[in-house]
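Anyone up for a design puzzle?
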């Protein structure tokens, strides 16, 4: 059961930690930390966009032509 837990939750936890680091660095830092926060907050958005594109491609392939 422990292996199944990590298999399911590893990536969401990593993305959450990355987002948290980005938010904290945006609040407390300047210069380099601003750049770090932009990068760390963009990565979860890019991952989400990637999976949306994959889902839309799969949805488009599964459509059948309409029967007359």
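Challenge accepted. My sequence:
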């Amino acid at each position: 059961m422990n292996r199944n837990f990590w298999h399911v939750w590893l990536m969401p936890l990593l993305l959450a930690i990355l987002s948290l680091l980005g938010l904290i660095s945006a609040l407390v830092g300047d210069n380099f930390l601003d750049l770090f926060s932009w990068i760390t907050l963009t990565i979860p958005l890019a991952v989400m966009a990637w999976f949306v594109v994959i889902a839309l491609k799969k949805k488009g392939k599964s459509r059948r032509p309409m029967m007359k």
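A detail worth pointing out: Residues 23 and 44 are 12 Å apart (CA to CA).
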